[in-house]
């Protein structure tokens, strides 16, 4: 009982940290701290899609949220530096993994001799790519708009150290808001 009374007296007679008119600052401060956590700890990045090479999944001008990448899987949409021009940032889909053999022929992509099921592409590729083994630490990246994309079919497999983000969410325009599949 004493403890309860003592704590009640202390609570009523406490020194306020903020005046009434300053309490509105709490919510922006909390929002700012949460934003800092996601930006610096989780590695959140904001990115604008530069070209039509990922249509229909991503359209030019779509703004996406991406995060630092830990593991790369087939089908992931990743952000990376162009292998020949490190200033240019690109976005493509992971098709081939290190050590796999990849081939494009007759409008299909083959991984280790088996055709890859690709429901996300705009249209089948009209070009061929000779069977190539992907070196260790490299990934084969293609745009979903296969016939209008500068990708690994042109510059070859991309080293892992050039891949820095993975798309997770379209936040602009609002009509396309949602998770990237």
- Average pLDDT: 85
The total beta strand count reads: 12
Order of helices and strands: HHEEEEEEEEEHEEE
**N-end to C-end Cα span:** 59 Å
Structural class: alpha+beta
Domain module tally: 1
According to CATH, the homologous superfamily is Umud Fragment, subunit A
Helical stretch count?
A: 3
* Rg estimate, integer Å: 24 Å
Assign the CATH class. Mainly Beta
| Silhouette | elongated
Strand content: 25-35%
Low-confidence blocks of residues: none
Sheet with the most strands? 8 strands, antiparallel
What percentage of residues falls in helices of 4 or more residues?
Answer: 10-25%
What would you say the CATH architecture is?
Ribbon
Written overview of the protein:
The protein has 181 residues and is α+β, with helices and mostly antiparallel strands. It has a single domain, classed as Ribbon (Umud Fragment, subunit A), CATH 2.10.109. It is built from 3 helices and 12 strands; from the N terminus they run H-H-E-E-E-E-E-E-E-E-E-H-E-E-E. Strands 1, 2, 3, 4, 9, 10, 11 and 12 form an 8-stranded antiparallel beta sheet that branches. The protein has a 4-stranded antiparallel beta sheet with strand order 7-6-5-8, with no helix packed on it.
């Amino acid at each position: 009982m004493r403890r309860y009374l003592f704590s009640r007296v202390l609570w009523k007679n406490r020194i306020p940290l903020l005046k009434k008119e300053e309490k509105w600052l709490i919510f922006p401060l909390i929002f700012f701290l949460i934003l800092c956590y996601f930006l610096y700890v989780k590695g959140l990045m904001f990115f604008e899609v530069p070209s039509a090479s990922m249509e229909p999944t991503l359209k030019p001008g779509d703004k996406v949220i991406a995060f630092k990448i830990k593991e790369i899987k087939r089908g992931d949409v990743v952000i990376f530096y162009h292998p020949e021009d490190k200033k240019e940032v690109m976005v493509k889909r992971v098709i081939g993994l290190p050590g796999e053999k990849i081939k494009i022929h007759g409008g299909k992509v083959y991984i280790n001799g088996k055709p890859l099921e690709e429901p996300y592409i705009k249209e089948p590729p009209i070009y061929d790519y000779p069977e190539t083994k992907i070196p260790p630490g490299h990934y084969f990246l293609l745009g979903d708009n296969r016939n209008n994309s500068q990708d690994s079919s042109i510059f070859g497999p991309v080293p892992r150290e050039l891949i820095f983000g993975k798309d997770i969410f379209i936040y602009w325009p609002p009509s396309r808001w949602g998770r990237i599949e």
